[in-house]
Amino acid sequence: MKRFHVHVGVKDIEKSIAFYSNLFGIEPSVAKADYAKWTLDDPRINFAISMREGATKGIEHVGVQVEEAAELAEVYARLDAAGRPVLEEGATTCCYAQSEKSWIADPDGVVWEAFLTEGESTTYGASPALDQLASANAASNACCAPQVVRPKTSCC
């Protein structure tokens, strides 16, 4: 079963944890010095916040979290069908979790991730260069970042 995901950048992690814990009526399922996550069933959402130097404050990205590899393959097929560049990150460490994921941006630049969490991590991990999704030329200029896969187009 899929779960909606929202990640919000915050200025003060302690104040934000208190606010969202009150809003959701539950403490976070993961709480670190720079990150917190609530895994809610009503509404069915993975809601995360983080406080990182230089990161965007407010909504950073949204996404679809899946529970099984078959669901991830289904969502990946939808990303391909969307006709936009896809950043295939693959196996990665992100948000104190081991995951398999890919990224896409909608026509207005809203970044979406599709992912399967496969375990926990003791480190936050690194974020990919999501600005690659904004430019079709970015992949050829990027160094040491996941490859942006251009959508398959049919000819004639």
TrEMBL record:
Q: Which InterPro entries match?
A: ArsI/CadI-like, Cadmium-induced_rsp, Glyas_Bleomycin-R_OHBP_Dase, Glyas_Fos-R_dOase_dom
For the Glyoxalase/fosfomycin resistance/dioxygenase domain, which residue ranges apply? 5-113
Q: Which PANTHER family match?
A: CADMIUM-INDUCED PROTEIN CADI
Pfam annotation, one family? Glyoxalase
Q: Which domain of life is it from?
A: Bacteria
Origin organism is Qipengyuania citrea
Q: What is this protein called?
A: VOC family protein
